[in-house]
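Worked Example 4.2. Consider the chain below.
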Amino acid sequence: MSLQVRIPGALAASSEVVRCAPYASDRDTQDGFAPAAVVTPKRLEDVQALVKWANDASVPIVPVSSTGPRRRGDTVPQAPGSVVADLSGLQRLIHADRRDKIAIIEPGVNFGMIDDLLRPHDLRAYRPLKPRAGKSVLTSYLDREPTLVPDMQWDISDPFGGTAMVLGNGDLCKTGGAAVEGTLEQQLKRGHRQLFAAGPAHIDLVRITQGAQGSLATMVWGAIYCEPIPTVEKSYFASADSLGTLVALARDLLNRRLCSSLFIVDAVQLAMLIGKSQDDLDRLSAELPAWTIFVSLAGYQHRPEQRVQWQNKDLVACAKTHGADLTEHLAGVSAETFAADLRLSEQGQYQDKFLGNHKELFFLQSFSNLETVVAAGSKGLKAGPLATRKVGTYIQPMVQGTFCHVAFTLPCSPEDTATGTPVDAQWREAVAACDAAGAFFSRPYGEWFDLAFRNAPNARRMMTAAKTILDPKGIMNPKRLPYEGAR
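Applying the procedure from the previous section yields the following C-alpha coordinates:
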Protein backbone atom coordinates (compact mmCIF):
# COMPACT_ATOMS: atom_id res chain seq x y z
CA MET A 1 0.00 0.00 0.00
CA SER A 2 1.46 3.37 -0.97
CA LEU A 3 2.10 6.11 1.53
CA GLN A 4 -0.34 8.40 -0.23
CA VAL A 5 -3.17 5.88 0.15
CA ARG A 6 -2.47 5.43 3.85
CA ILE A 7 -2.76 9.17 4.58
CA PRO A 8 -6.23 9.97 5.98
CA GLY A 9 -8.61 10.47 3.07
CA ALA A 10 -9.82 13.85 4.32
CA LEU A 11 -6.35 15.35 3.87
CA ALA A 12 -5.08 16.64 0.56
CA ALA A 13 -1.89 14.82 -0.39
CA SER A 14 0.51 14.82 -3.29
CA SER A 15 3.41 12.48 -3.92
CA GLU A 16 4.26 13.83 -7.36
CA VAL A 17 8.00 14.09 -7.88
CA VAL A 18 7.75 17.65 -9.16
CA ARG A 19 5.84 18.67 -6.02
CA CYS A 20 8.07 16.85 -3.54
CA ALA A 21 11.49 17.51 -5.05
CA PRO A 22 11.77 21.22 -4.09
CA TYR A 23 11.53 20.31 -0.40
CA ALA A 24 14.66 18.12 -0.59
CA SER A 25 17.02 21.11 -0.48
CA ASP A 26 17.25 24.83 0.12
CA ARG A 27 19.82 27.59 -0.38
CA ASP A 28 22.04 26.23 2.41
CA THR A 29 21.27 22.50 2.51
CA GLN A 30 21.62 20.16 -0.46
CA ASP A 31 21.74 16.74 1.21
CA GLY A 32 18.16 16.24 2.38
CA PHE A 33 15.58 13.65 1.37
CA ALA A 34 12.68 14.34 -0.94
CA PRO A 35 9.50 13.80 1.08
CA ALA A 36 7.30 10.86 0.26
CA ALA A 37 4.30 13.19 0.16
CA VAL A 38 3.24 16.79 0.74
CA VAL A 39 0.05 17.32 2.74
CA THR A 40 -1.75 20.68 2.78
CA PRO A 41 -4.04 20.88 5.83
CA LYS A 42 -6.98 23.25 5.56
CA ARG A 43 -7.82 23.62 9.25
CA LEU A 44 -6.61 22.85 12.76
CA GLU A 45 -8.38 19.51 12.86
CA ASP A 46 -6.51 18.41 9.71
CA VAL A 47 -3.16 19.09 11.37
CA GLN A 48 -4.12 17.12 14.45
CA ALA A 49 -5.42 14.21 12.35
CA LEU A 50 -2.20 14.16 10.34
CA VAL A 51 0.05 14.10 13.42
CA LYS A 52 -2.02 11.37 15.08
CA TRP A 53 -1.84 9.30 11.89
CA ALA A 54 1.91 9.85 11.70
CA ASN A 55 2.28 8.57 15.26
CA ASP A 56 0.32 5.44 14.45
CA ALA A 57 2.20 4.87 11.19
CA SER A 58 5.64 5.96 12.54
CA VAL A 59 6.02 8.44 9.67
CA PRO A 60 8.21 11.55 10.13
CA ILE A 61 6.47 14.92 9.80
CA VAL A 62 8.24 18.13 8.70
CA PRO A 63 6.10 21.27 9.22
CA VAL A 64 6.52 24.12 6.70
CA SER A 65 4.70 27.46 6.77
CA SER A 66 6.70 29.84 4.58
CA THR A 67 6.74 30.01 0.78
CA GLY A 68 9.45 31.00 -1.66
CA PRO A 69 13.21 30.39 -1.46
CA ARG A 70 14.08 28.82 1.89
CA ARG A 71 17.44 28.54 3.64
CA ARG A 72 19.14 27.29 6.84
CA GLY A 73 17.94 23.71 6.32
CA ASP A 74 15.35 23.53 9.09
CA THR A 75 12.56 22.48 6.70
CA VAL A 76 14.64 20.03 4.65
CA PRO A 77 13.71 16.43 5.61
CA GLN A 78 16.62 14.61 7.20
CA ALA A 79 14.84 11.23 7.33
CA PRO A 80 13.64 9.16 4.36
CA GLY A 81 9.90 8.67 3.93
CA SER A 82 8.98 11.96 5.59
CA VAL A 83 5.72 13.78 4.96
CA VAL A 84 5.82 17.56 4.65
CA ALA A 85 2.93 19.32 6.36
CA ASP A 86 2.64 22.50 4.29
CA LEU A 87 0.66 24.98 6.39
CA SER A 88 1.20 27.96 4.07
CA GLY A 89 -2.45 27.80 2.97
CA LEU A 90 -3.69 28.57 6.51
CA GLN A 91 -3.83 32.35 6.04
CA ARG A 92 -6.64 33.62 8.24
CA LEU A 93 -6.53 36.67 10.43
CA ILE A 94 -8.81 35.19 13.05
CA HIS A 95 -9.12 38.24 15.28
CA ALA A 96 -7.61 41.69 15.77
CA ASP A 97 -8.13 44.08 18.69
CA ARG A 98 -6.84 47.68 18.57
CA ARG A 99 -7.48 48.28 22.26
CA ASP A 100 -5.30 45.37 23.42
CA LYS A 101 -2.95 45.67 20.42
CA ILE A 102 -3.20 41.97 19.64
CA ALA A 103 -4.04 39.81 16.65
CA ILE A 104 -4.62 36.08 16.19
CA ILE A 105 -3.22 34.61 12.99
CA GLU A 106 -2.63 31.25 11.35
CA PRO A 107 0.85 29.98 10.34
CA GLY A 108 0.42 30.73 6.63
CA VAL A 109 0.08 34.47 7.23
CA ASN A 110 3.34 35.95 5.94
CA PHE A 111 5.06 39.32 6.03
CA GLY A 112 3.90 40.09 2.51
CA MET A 113 0.28 40.15 3.67
CA ILE A 114 0.25 40.81 7.42
CA ASP A 115 0.19 44.61 7.35
CA ASP A 116 -2.60 44.65 4.75
CA LEU A 117 -4.64 42.34 6.98
CA LEU A 118 -4.03 44.47 10.07
CA ARG A 119 -4.41 47.94 8.51
CA PRO A 120 -8.24 48.06 8.83
CA HIS A 121 -7.71 47.54 12.57
CA ASP A 122 -5.15 50.39 12.78
CA LEU A 123 -2.38 47.91 13.62
CA ARG A 124 0.83 46.70 12.02
CA ALA A 125 3.17 43.79 12.74
CA TYR A 126 6.52 43.91 14.47
CA ARG A 127 8.96 43.01 11.70
CA PRO A 128 12.52 41.72 11.54
CA LEU A 129 14.95 43.42 9.17
CA LYS A 130 13.52 43.21 5.61
CA PRO A 131 11.89 39.77 5.78
CA ARG A 132 11.01 38.26 2.42
CA ALA A 133 7.34 38.38 1.48
CA GLY A 134 6.73 34.63 1.82
CA LYS A 135 8.22 34.34 5.31
CA SER A 136 5.65 33.09 7.83
CA VAL A 137 5.14 35.56 10.68
CA LEU A 138 4.65 32.83 13.30
CA THR A 139 7.68 30.92 12.03
CA SER A 140 9.83 34.04 12.32
CA TYR A 141 8.71 34.63 15.89
CA LEU A 142 9.17 30.95 16.77
CA ASP A 143 12.74 31.18 15.48
CA ARG A 144 13.31 34.21 17.72
CA GLU A 145 14.28 36.43 14.80
CA PRO A 146 14.79 39.89 16.31
CA THR A 147 12.32 42.64 15.46
CA LEU A 148 13.31 46.25 14.89
CA VAL A 149 11.49 47.53 17.99
CA PRO A 150 13.49 46.59 21.10
CA ASP A 151 11.60 49.09 23.23
CA MET A 152 8.43 46.99 23.00
CA GLN A 153 10.08 43.61 23.60
CA TRP A 154 9.87 42.74 27.28
CA ASP A 155 10.75 39.05 27.06
CA ILE A 156 12.47 36.74 24.57
CA SER A 157 9.08 35.12 23.82
CA ASP A 158 7.60 38.45 22.67
CA PRO A 159 5.60 39.23 20.62
CA PHE A 160 3.72 36.00 21.41
CA GLY A 161 0.60 35.86 23.54
CA GLY A 162 -1.44 32.68 23.90
CA THR A 163 -1.22 30.04 21.17
CA ALA A 164 -2.59 26.69 20.07
CA MET A 165 -0.20 23.96 18.97
CA VAL A 166 -0.45 20.32 18.03
CA LEU A 167 2.22 18.49 20.02
CA GLY A 168 4.28 15.68 18.55
CA ASN A 169 2.07 13.15 20.35
CA GLY A 170 -1.01 14.49 18.53
CA ASP A 171 -2.55 16.36 21.47
CA LEU A 172 -3.89 19.86 20.95
CA CYS A 173 -2.38 22.18 23.54
CA LYS A 174 -3.44 25.75 24.24
CA THR A 175 -0.78 27.85 25.88
CA GLY A 176 -0.62 31.00 27.96
CA GLY A 177 -3.70 33.19 27.82
CA ALA A 178 -5.44 30.70 25.53
CA ALA A 179 -5.28 27.90 28.12
CA VAL A 180 -8.68 28.65 29.60
CA GLU A 181 -12.15 27.14 29.28
CA GLY A 182 -13.81 27.05 25.89
CA THR A 183 -12.89 27.07 22.24
CA LEU A 184 -11.15 30.07 20.72
CA GLU A 185 -14.46 31.29 19.32
CA GLN A 186 -16.12 30.98 22.75
CA GLN A 187 -13.22 32.79 24.40
CA LEU A 188 -13.42 35.69 21.98
CA LYS A 189 -17.21 35.90 22.21
CA ARG A 190 -17.08 36.37 25.98
CA GLY A 191 -14.39 39.03 25.68
CA HIS A 192 -11.39 36.96 26.71
CA ARG A 193 -8.07 38.00 25.15
CA GLN A 194 -5.05 35.67 24.84
CA LEU A 195 -2.53 38.20 26.15
CA PHE A 196 -0.01 36.02 28.01
CA ALA A 197 2.54 33.62 26.54
CA ALA A 198 3.47 31.75 29.72
CA GLY A 199 1.20 29.07 31.13
CA PRO A 200 -0.83 27.18 31.99
CA ALA A 201 0.47 27.28 35.56
CA HIS A 202 4.28 27.28 35.65
CA ILE A 203 4.70 25.69 32.20
CA ASP A 204 5.84 27.85 29.28
CA LEU A 205 5.53 25.74 26.15
CA VAL A 206 6.00 28.72 23.84
CA ARG A 207 9.45 29.31 25.29
CA ILE A 208 10.24 25.59 24.95
CA THR A 209 9.12 25.33 21.33
CA GLN A 210 10.81 28.57 20.24
CA GLY A 211 14.02 27.63 18.48
CA ALA A 212 13.05 23.95 18.24
CA GLN A 213 12.84 24.19 14.43
CA GLY A 214 9.61 22.23 14.19
CA SER A 215 10.94 19.25 16.14
CA LEU A 216 8.47 19.39 19.06
CA ALA A 217 5.12 20.73 17.88
CA THR A 218 3.24 22.56 15.15
CA MET A 219 1.64 25.90 15.98
CA VAL A 220 -1.79 26.16 14.36
CA TRP A 221 -2.62 29.68 15.48
CA GLY A 222 -0.97 32.28 17.64
CA ALA A 223 -1.91 35.54 19.32
CA ILE A 224 0.75 38.17 18.60
CA TYR A 225 1.24 41.65 19.94
CA CYS A 226 1.09 44.35 17.28
CA GLU A 227 2.04 48.00 17.03
CA PRO A 228 -0.66 50.66 16.63
CA ILE A 229 -0.05 52.53 13.39
CA PRO A 230 1.60 55.78 14.53
CA THR A 231 -0.27 59.03 14.02
CA VAL A 232 3.07 60.82 13.74
CA GLU A 233 6.41 59.18 12.94
CA LYS A 234 9.84 60.73 12.45
CA SER A 235 13.05 58.93 11.48
CA TYR A 236 16.75 59.81 11.62
CA PHE A 237 20.24 58.50 10.91
CA ALA A 238 22.98 59.02 13.51
CA SER A 239 26.50 58.27 12.28
CA ALA A 240 30.02 57.98 13.65
CA ASP A 241 33.43 56.59 12.72
CA SER A 242 33.53 54.45 15.87
CA LEU A 243 31.18 51.63 16.80
CA GLY A 244 31.77 52.50 20.45
CA THR A 245 30.23 55.93 19.93
CA LEU A 246 27.00 54.46 18.60
CA VAL A 247 26.89 51.69 21.21
CA ALA A 248 26.95 54.36 23.91
CA LEU A 249 24.28 56.37 22.08
CA ALA A 250 22.07 53.30 21.59
CA ARG A 251 22.27 52.39 25.27
CA ASP A 252 21.36 55.94 26.25
CA LEU A 253 18.38 56.04 23.89
CA LEU A 254 17.15 52.64 25.07
CA ASN A 255 17.51 53.55 28.73
CA ARG A 256 15.44 56.69 28.09
CA ARG A 257 12.93 54.70 25.98
CA LEU A 258 13.13 57.35 23.29
CA CYS A 259 12.90 55.16 20.22
CA SER A 260 10.41 53.07 18.34
CA SER A 261 12.67 51.31 15.82
CA LEU A 262 16.42 51.23 16.46
CA PHE A 263 19.34 49.29 15.01
CA ILE A 264 23.02 49.75 14.12
CA VAL A 265 24.63 48.92 10.76
CA ASP A 266 28.02 49.44 9.17
CA ALA A 267 28.49 51.03 5.74
CA VAL A 268 28.29 47.72 3.85
CA GLN A 269 25.09 46.59 5.56
CA LEU A 270 23.42 49.95 4.99
CA ALA A 271 24.52 49.84 1.35
CA MET A 272 22.88 46.42 1.03
CA LEU A 273 19.65 47.82 2.44
CA ILE A 274 19.40 50.87 0.18
CA GLY A 275 21.34 49.73 -2.91
CA LYS A 276 19.81 47.94 -5.88
CA SER A 277 22.86 46.57 -7.71
CA GLN A 278 26.48 45.53 -7.27
CA ASP A 279 27.56 48.97 -8.50
CA ASP A 280 25.38 50.57 -5.82
CA LEU A 281 26.93 48.32 -3.19
CA ASP A 282 30.46 49.31 -4.20
CA ARG A 283 29.67 53.02 -4.42
CA LEU A 284 27.60 53.34 -1.28
CA SER A 285 30.00 51.28 0.84
CA ALA A 286 32.65 53.91 0.08
CA GLU A 287 30.36 56.93 0.53
CA LEU A 288 28.46 56.03 3.68
CA PRO A 289 29.75 56.60 7.24
CA ALA A 290 31.55 53.72 8.92
CA TRP A 291 28.68 53.12 11.39
CA THR A 292 25.07 54.33 11.46
CA ILE A 293 22.14 54.06 13.85
CA PHE A 294 18.69 54.17 12.35
CA VAL A 295 16.07 55.40 14.82
CA SER A 296 12.35 56.15 14.53
CA LEU A 297 10.26 58.20 16.93
CA ALA A 298 6.52 57.53 17.07
CA GLY A 299 3.45 59.28 18.44
CA TYR A 300 0.27 57.30 18.83
CA GLN A 301 -3.23 58.08 20.06
CA HIS A 302 -2.62 60.59 22.82
CA ARG A 303 -0.93 63.91 21.90
CA PRO A 304 1.24 62.35 19.20
CA GLU A 305 2.81 65.63 18.04
CA GLN A 306 3.91 66.56 21.55
CA ARG A 307 5.30 63.07 22.13
CA VAL A 308 7.45 63.16 19.01
CA GLN A 309 8.49 66.74 19.79
CA TRP A 310 9.96 65.95 23.19
CA GLN A 311 11.50 62.73 21.92
CA ASN A 312 13.12 64.64 19.09
CA LYS A 313 14.54 67.21 21.52
CA ASP A 314 16.07 64.49 23.70
CA LEU A 315 17.39 62.60 20.65
CA VAL A 316 19.24 65.69 19.45
CA ALA A 317 20.71 66.21 22.92
CA CYS A 318 21.81 62.57 23.24
CA ALA A 319 23.45 62.56 19.80
CA LYS A 320 25.36 65.73 20.70
CA THR A 321 26.46 64.31 24.06
CA HIS A 322 27.92 61.19 22.44
CA GLY A 323 29.44 62.93 19.41
CA ALA A 324 27.24 61.32 16.75
CA ASP A 325 26.15 63.16 13.61
CA LEU A 326 22.35 63.28 13.46
CA THR A 327 20.81 63.74 10.01
CA GLU A 328 17.64 63.09 8.04
CA HIS A 329 19.53 62.11 4.85
CA LEU A 330 22.43 59.83 3.95
CA ALA A 331 23.81 59.27 0.43
CA GLY A 332 20.76 60.95 -1.06
CA VAL A 333 18.29 58.73 0.83
CA SER A 334 15.94 60.25 3.40
CA ALA A 335 15.36 58.50 6.70
CA GLU A 336 11.61 58.72 6.06
CA THR A 337 11.94 56.89 2.73
CA PHE A 338 14.21 54.32 4.35
CA ALA A 339 11.68 53.75 7.16
CA ALA A 340 8.89 53.19 4.63
CA ASP A 341 11.07 50.76 2.67
CA LEU A 342 11.69 48.69 5.81
CA ARG A 343 7.98 47.88 5.88
CA LEU A 344 8.01 46.46 2.34
CA SER A 345 8.82 42.84 1.58
CA GLU A 346 10.35 41.50 -1.62
CA GLN A 347 9.81 38.00 -2.97
CA GLY A 348 13.48 37.13 -2.50
CA GLN A 349 15.94 38.05 0.23
CA TYR A 350 17.45 41.51 -0.13
CA GLN A 351 20.96 40.14 0.47
CA ASP A 352 20.74 38.02 -2.70
CA LYS A 353 20.07 40.83 -5.19
CA PHE A 354 23.78 41.59 -5.65
CA LEU A 355 25.49 38.26 -6.48
CA GLY A 356 22.66 35.75 -6.26
CA ASN A 357 23.23 34.37 -2.75
CA HIS A 358 24.74 35.19 0.62
CA LYS A 359 26.39 33.65 3.67
CA GLU A 360 25.33 34.64 7.15
CA LEU A 361 26.63 34.38 10.69
CA PHE A 362 24.55 35.50 13.65
CA PHE A 363 24.61 35.19 17.44
CA LEU A 364 23.71 37.01 20.65
CA GLN A 365 25.99 39.22 22.67
CA SER A 366 25.80 41.63 25.60
CA PHE A 367 26.39 45.33 25.05
CA SER A 368 29.38 45.22 27.41
CA ASN A 369 31.32 42.79 25.17
CA LEU A 370 29.83 43.87 21.86
CA GLU A 371 32.81 45.76 20.44
CA THR A 372 35.23 42.93 21.27
CA VAL A 373 33.14 40.25 19.57
CA VAL A 374 32.37 42.39 16.51
CA ALA A 375 36.07 43.21 16.14
CA ALA A 376 36.99 39.51 16.37
CA GLY A 377 34.42 38.57 13.75
CA SER A 378 35.40 41.42 11.45
CA LYS A 379 39.07 40.48 11.69
CA GLY A 380 38.30 36.89 10.73
CA LEU A 381 36.12 38.03 7.83
CA LYS A 382 38.71 40.39 6.40
CA ALA A 383 41.45 37.80 6.02
CA GLY A 384 42.38 35.24 3.39
CA PRO A 385 39.94 34.92 0.48
CA LEU A 386 37.54 37.39 2.14
CA ALA A 387 40.09 40.20 2.40
CA THR A 388 38.67 42.02 -0.63
CA ARG A 389 35.02 41.00 -0.14
CA LYS A 390 32.33 43.21 1.33
CA VAL A 391 30.82 41.87 4.56
CA GLY A 392 28.03 43.77 6.28
CA THR A 393 27.43 44.03 10.03
CA TYR A 394 23.99 44.41 11.59
CA ILE A 395 23.45 44.91 15.34
CA GLN A 396 19.92 44.70 16.71
CA PRO A 397 19.29 45.46 20.39
CA MET A 398 16.71 43.11 21.92
CA VAL A 399 14.51 42.94 25.03
CA GLN A 400 14.72 46.58 26.08
CA GLY A 401 18.37 46.69 25.04
CA THR A 402 19.55 44.10 27.58
CA PHE A 403 21.50 42.28 24.84
CA CYS A 404 22.01 42.32 21.07
CA HIS A 405 21.61 40.18 17.99
CA VAL A 406 24.76 40.45 15.84
CA ALA A 407 24.78 39.36 12.20
CA PHE A 408 27.50 39.32 9.53
CA THR A 409 26.38 39.02 5.91
CA LEU A 410 28.49 38.28 2.82
CA PRO A 411 26.83 38.75 -0.59
CA CYS A 412 28.28 35.99 -2.74
CA SER A 413 27.66 33.72 -5.69
CA PRO A 414 25.98 30.32 -5.23
CA GLU A 415 29.36 28.67 -5.90
CA ASP A 416 30.90 30.41 -2.87
CA THR A 417 28.45 28.76 -0.49
CA ALA A 418 29.57 25.21 -1.28
CA THR A 419 31.28 23.35 1.55
CA GLY A 420 35.06 23.22 1.21
CA THR A 421 35.53 26.36 -0.89
CA PRO A 422 38.13 28.92 0.28
CA VAL A 423 35.29 31.29 1.18
CA ASP A 424 33.60 28.59 3.25
CA ALA A 425 36.86 27.72 5.03
CA GLN A 426 37.54 31.35 5.93
CA TRP A 427 33.97 31.79 7.09
CA ARG A 428 34.39 28.87 9.47
CA GLU A 429 37.52 30.48 10.88
CA ALA A 430 35.55 33.66 11.51
CA VAL A 431 32.86 31.63 13.31
CA ALA A 432 35.55 30.12 15.54
CA ALA A 433 36.97 33.58 16.24
CA CYS A 434 33.56 34.86 17.34
CA ASP A 435 33.10 31.79 19.52
CA ALA A 436 36.47 32.35 21.19
CA ALA A 437 35.56 35.99 21.84
CA GLY A 438 32.37 35.00 23.64
CA ALA A 439 29.59 34.87 21.03
CA PHE A 440 26.44 33.05 22.20
CA PHE A 441 24.96 30.89 19.43
CA SER A 442 21.35 30.56 20.54
CA ARG A 443 20.01 29.54 17.12
CA PRO A 444 22.01 26.55 15.82
CA TYR A 445 22.44 26.70 12.06
CA GLY A 446 25.19 26.26 9.51
CA GLU A 447 28.82 26.47 10.51
CA TRP A 448 28.05 27.17 14.17
CA PHE A 449 25.56 24.31 14.63
CA ASP A 450 27.97 22.15 16.65
CA LEU A 451 29.30 25.10 18.67
CA ALA A 452 25.87 25.83 20.09
CA PHE A 453 25.78 22.42 21.75
CA ARG A 454 29.48 22.00 22.51
CA ASN A 455 29.38 25.13 24.66
CA ALA A 456 26.21 24.04 26.49
CA PRO A 457 26.72 20.37 27.44
CA ASN A 458 23.61 20.28 29.68
CA ALA A 459 21.32 21.66 27.00
CA ARG A 460 20.92 18.38 25.14
CA ARG A 461 19.70 16.58 28.28
CA MET A 462 17.04 19.22 28.87
CA MET A 463 16.11 19.24 25.19
CA THR A 464 15.78 15.47 25.23
CA ALA A 465 13.48 15.60 28.25
CA ALA A 466 11.19 18.01 26.39
CA LYS A 467 11.31 15.84 23.26
CA THR A 468 10.42 12.73 25.23
CA ILE A 469 7.36 14.41 26.73
CA LEU A 470 6.07 16.32 23.71
CA ASP A 471 7.09 13.97 20.88
CA PRO A 472 7.66 10.53 22.43
CA LYS A 473 7.79 8.68 19.08
CA GLY A 474 10.20 11.19 17.56
CA ILE A 475 8.14 11.91 14.45
CA MET A 476 8.54 15.71 14.38
CA ASN A 477 11.35 16.81 12.05
CA PRO A 478 13.66 13.95 13.16
CA LYS A 479 17.45 14.31 13.05
CA ARG A 480 17.18 18.09 12.76
CA LEU A 481 18.45 18.81 16.28
CA PRO A 482 20.83 16.50 18.21
CA TYR A 483 18.54 15.14 20.89
CA GLU A 484 20.21 12.40 22.90
CA GLY A 485 19.15 9.07 21.45
CA ALA A 486 17.34 10.83 18.60
CA ARG A 487 16.21 8.63 15.74
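The chain has a mean pLDDT of 93. The chain has four domains: 3-86, 93-228, 232-342, 350-454. Compare this with Example 4.1 before moving on.
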